[in-house]
Amino acid sequence: QVQLAESGGRLVQAGDSLRLSCAASGRTAGRDVMAWFRQSPGKEREFVSAITWSGGNTHYRDSVKGRFTISRDNVNNTLYLQMNSLQPEDTAVYYCARSLSAVIYSDSARYRYWGRGTQVTVSS
Question: Rounded mean pLDDT of 115-124?
Fold first, then answer.
């Protein structure tokens, strides 16, 4: 089992930056893809970004390209999401997820382990 715990979400203003963290514990061995998803009220959970174990391959949804950067520290078992130029439409609960695959997928069904989420609110 893997436990994931997100942190770093808070209320910010449009244009601000924020860094989310996700600490993994438990059976963290394995070269699995990790990802960030988000969910706004009344909307489906959507893929934000994912990264391979080595960090050599990343993928982003179009609306965050150039503004968000995903990274991971495998020594400390932590996943990060640096979010710049935040906009009100980025408001959501952000979830960390870990797959059992070394291949990046944007489908949430491919991810086995999930955190409880951290709220990001961007005011205009």
Answer: 97
